[in-house]
Design brief:
The chain is an alpha+beta fold. It contains five helices and eight strands. The longest helix is centred in the middle third of the chain and has 15 residues, at 79-93.
């Protein structure tokens, strides 16, 4: 892959992400374990909420262009659960249900959503932004990327914000240089591990992220 080099600000040499300096507004809320199937933004659904015939699939429009390196077969979870995941994330991202079709990505996000932030962490007990992004790309798209946000920035091809597609990376300067990273989803939404609230979905148009946005990058060929 051709590497593009850009002059950086003061690059952070830390392995993980630098904690955010203040709480940013986010999409989603804490989920109480005793309240039943409540999801992002308190969306609650039951298995009968969606009666369509969509089966889980991996049909991202740019999937053929993604770097090879792993299977893109869907998680072997039951179809009913996959439909539920498609339904609730289509509401969150304001997309048609059929457009939310990466079953592996949905499964991963749903399992990790709300995991606490921990600098240097790489598990659901605590994870930093670059470790989360690395794990998500591996689980959702089947290939490996570097561990640190700085190396992720160096490895990807830089693109314009208007050209972002699902699975592309977005980089921020939260405390000098490339110090925070997330994965773009759709409609300006990206998922990341924030020091202020753990794994969550936020909006690129939020004033906090707009001010600190540096660049977008893709691993698509």
């Amino acid at each position: 892959m051709k590497k593009l080099f850009f002059p950086l600000l003061t690059i952070s040499y830390l392995v993980g992400c630098t904690p955010l300096q203040k709480s940013a507004s986010v999409t989603g809320s804490s989920i109480a374990a005793d309240r039943g199937p409540h999801f992002l933004e308190n969306i609650a659904i039951s298995p009968s909420a969606y009666k369509g015939s969509l089966a889980p699939s991996i049909s991202h429009p740019d999937s053929a262009k993604l770097r090879s390196g792993g299977s893109l077969a869907a998680y072997p979870n039951d179809i009913e659960n996959s439909r539920d995941l498609q339904f609730k994330y289509s509401i969150l991202l304001n997309l048609p249900v059929e457009a939310v079709s990466n079953a592996r990505l949905l499964q991963f996000m749903d399992e990790w959503y709300g995991a606490p932030y921990r600098y240097g962490g790489n598990s659901k007990d605590g994870v930093d932004c670059s470790a989360f992004v690395s794990s998500l790309v591996s689980a959702g798209y089947g290939f490996s990327i570097p561990r640190s946000s700085r190396d992720q920035y160096a490895a990807c091809k830089k693109i314009k914000k208007k050209d972002l597609h699902e699975g592309d990376l977005v980089f921020f300067n939260t405390k000098g240089g490339i110090s925070h990273v997330g994965v773009f989803l759709a409609n300006n939404k990206f998922i990341h591990a924030s020091s202020s609230g753990g794994v969550m979905i936020s909006d690129l148009e939020d004033k906090y992220y707009t001010k600190r946005y540096i660049a977008a990058g893709t691993m698509r060929l």
